[in-house]
Amino acid sequence: MRKAAVTAVSTVAGVILLLSLKPHQNPAPDMAASPPSSGAPGASSSPAPTGHRPSNGGASGTYTGSVMNTSYGPVQVAVTLSNGRITAVKALRTPSDRPRSQQIAADAVPRLTQEALSAQSAHIDAVSGATYTSEGYTRSLQSALDKAGV
User: Fold this and answer.
1) Which stretches are tagged as biased composition: Low complexity (predicted)?
2) CA distance 82 to 104
């Protein structure tokens, strides 16, 4: 009888514990593009491409992606292409209003850049702990690649 009571109490406690856990919520960040503020370094109100498309079809030059607003601040990148291949990605804007945001961006951006260079696209994995920065980075990168036509 005692074993049955312990089992019942344990089962009830387990069910209560499971029901009290909150489901993981992943609120979608505001990733809508907005024009950069006029005073931001490296920002321009018309991110026109500075490259050209050679006769072989691959774009070359530097293309600036749209500013992506995240919950922690704006993210913007520029991509440099040579004959349609990504040769460099430079972060123009990253979340920087808080020391923690600066630290996260300082860790995540080099990793995202290396992945983009390896993948030769914006289809890269997010950096753990920097989800919003990663999403802003990849969306801005895709915007730049779209402007380049690749």
Assistant:
1) 27-49
2) 30
| Residue 88, strand partner residues | 80
> Taking the model in full, what pTM does it have?
0.64
Number of domains in the chain: 1
Q: Which residue has the higher pLDDT, 10 or 107?
A: 107
- Residue among 126, 143, 147, 128 at smallest CA distance from 76: 143
Tell me whether residue 112 is in a domain: yes
Q: Say if CB 143 and CB 49 are below 8 A apart.
A: no
Within a 10 A sphere around the Cβ of 88, how many other Cβ atoms? Answer: 13
Residue range(s) defining the domain that contains residue 63: 25-150
Q: Is the pLDDT of residue 45 over 80?
A: no
pLDDT single digits (tens) 120-141: 999 999 999 999 999 999 999 9
The CA-atom distances, in angstroms, between 54 and each of 81, 131, 147 are: 11, 36, 15
Token pair of 144 as six digits = 């730049």
